[in-house]
Amino acid sequence: MKTPLKYTAAFAALAVAGAASAQDITTEVVVERSIQPVERAASRPAGLTPALILPPVGTVTLSTASYTGLSPVVRAYTSLQPARGADVPAESPWRGYVSLGYFPVYNLGFAAGYRAISGENSTLDLHASFHGFDYKAWEHADEKNKYNGGTVGADYTLRPNAGSQLTASADYTYASAATYYTAAQSRNAGRLSIGWQSELQGLEYSAAVRAEIDAFGDTRFDLGSVNTPFDGLRQQLYGIDLGAALPFGEDNKAGADISATFMHSKCDDRFAAYAPTLGIVHLRPYYALRAGQVSASAGLNIDFFTGGSGSKVHVSPAVDLAWTPASVVALHVTASGGTGFNSVRAMLDQSPILPVLGSFGRYRVPYDLSGAITVGPAAGFTATLAGGYSHAKDVLMPDLNMLSQPMGERDAKGWHASVELGYEQRLFSIGASAGIASSDAADGKGYYLWTDGARWQIKASGTVRPVERLAVGVDYTFRSHRHTPVTSLGCVSDLALRATFRFTERLDVFANVENILGRRYLIVPTISSQKIHGLVGATIRF
């Protein structure tokens, strides 16, 4: 997609006097992306122990099956995320926890949670977290990339009867981020969602409302003679979701989902390339059935666009077929597609320290065809063979459109395939996978969930549990032939070690050390990763 004229002018203004030197691009980023035009929920670890997690860059497949996890986890930093919401088991003997981790020079993680209400029909969880780091920028040893951000929130669940549930979730985030070429930029972000699902005389129905607000402060670029302040982006997303399904007997169901989402953006006039307000109205009629070991659903994704230019209607398939011919064999085939927004939160999935000045528009997936066969677990072994072919338009990917916002909307069309093997027993577990995808960004070829344009991906992991209280693990990720349409990205080679030891039922200690090989890479163009980093700390339950 061509860079809009105003973006080009802004880039030219930022690049005067040759103050910004060219850099080698040697990294990749993979974005979690759902084809439904509904903002995805945050990942929530189960239980009252927070999980050492990475940024939300792992992909989610386009169906409810978890057979095809092709995209890698690429470690840019480590953080602690609190356990929260209905995923915290009510039968846990603990109501809360506090967890703290640190790694020099400065990597700090904090997470805390408390179940304030733990009733038979309702729960209320309060949670808080903080994440901070600073490190020397690659090829700019005298400058640092910095981030400090904290979140507080609450999640409420009410089950008034066996067939109904009310959920409500809200959180607020304040953060400050800076790169070697930008001054610190603040972010105020809020999120609210309320949902209800129930059944009335056999009719299953659901309804939800949601809102997300992001407001970024002004920032300046340190580019020699160019030190003009730019207004930060203000963006709001509002949506409503409705769904209903009518069962026919025990094995058949007809239904429809409808949702409407609107994204309003206001930014500096020098970065205004899209209509201020864009909308998507989504309709999915479907029919689902189950016959013995076969379950299937067939429907259409029909999207209507408001605001902006171009086509106003987008139609894509919504077909899902699963067959379990034996207890250890499963086959799964999907034909899907859809649309969504390239929102500011999708941009920050790439890196939390991206300077945010302008907005992007909608992406479209005309079709995504995939299939997988899984064998196991059998005697501890599991094997999965998967593949597919997809076509996506205007997908948000790392690019070199402009220094101030190194992201762009690109098309990607092509095939992908992978094989995954695993073995697990009481004392240890191991796993390995290899994936390949068509890769030629200059010709628009690639797998849109591999946003770095990689051709090969290899992953390996293992965990050893020599005693009941100790677990030690290793993870390795390799990706090659990564590139944007105009620049080679090289390869990623990332080795990490992790360990957890439980002193008592109340106290755990943990260590997670990443990028042990010290390989530097760019998370997106102009923003590099740390060398060796991680978190070492403890979790206390109460």
Terminal CA distance: 53 Å
> Biggest sheet: strands, sense, closure?
22 strands, antiparallel, barrel
Relative helix content: under 10%
Average pLDDT, to the nearest integer?
A: 79
Structure at a glance:
By secondary structure, the chain is mainly β. It has helices at 5-14, 344-350, and strands at 51-53, 79-81, 96-103, 107-118, 122-137, 140-161, 164-179, 182-200, 203-216, 219-220, 229-230, 234-248, 252-266, 277-291, 294-306, 313-326, 329-341, 362-378, 381-398, 407-424, 428-437, 456-464, 470-483, 488-502, 507-514, 522-524, 527-528, 533-541.
Key descriptive features of the protein:
single chain, 542 residues, mainly beta, 22-stranded antiparallel beta barrel, two-stranded antiparallel ribbon, 2 helices, 28 strands, disordered N terminus
Topology:
Elements: H1 5-14, E1 51-53, E2 79-81, E3 96-103, E4 107-118, E5 122-137, E6 140-161, E7 164-179, E8 182-200, E9 203-216, E10 219-220, E11 229-230, E12 234-248, E13 252-266, E14 277-291, E15 294-306, E16 313-326, E17 329-341, H2 344-350, E18 362-378, E19 381-398, E20 407-424, E21 428-437, E22 456-464, E23 470-483, E24 488-502, E25 507-514, E26 522-524, E27 527-528, E28 533-541
Antiparallel strand pairs: 1-2, 3-4, 3-28, 4-5, 5-6, 6-7, 7-8, 8-9, 9-12, 10-11, 12-13, 13-14, 14-15, 15-16, 16-17, 17-18, 18-19, 19-20, 20-21, 21-22, 22-23, 23-24, 24-25, 25-28, 26-27
Structure, described:
- With 542 residues, the chain is mostly beta strands.
- Helices cover 3% and strands 60% of the residues.
- The strands form four sheets. The chain has a 22-stranded antiparallel beta barrel. The protein has a two-stranded antiparallel sheet with strand order 1-2. It has a two-stranded antiparallel ribbon with strand order 10-11.
- A hairpin with a 2-residue loop joins strand 14 and strand 15.
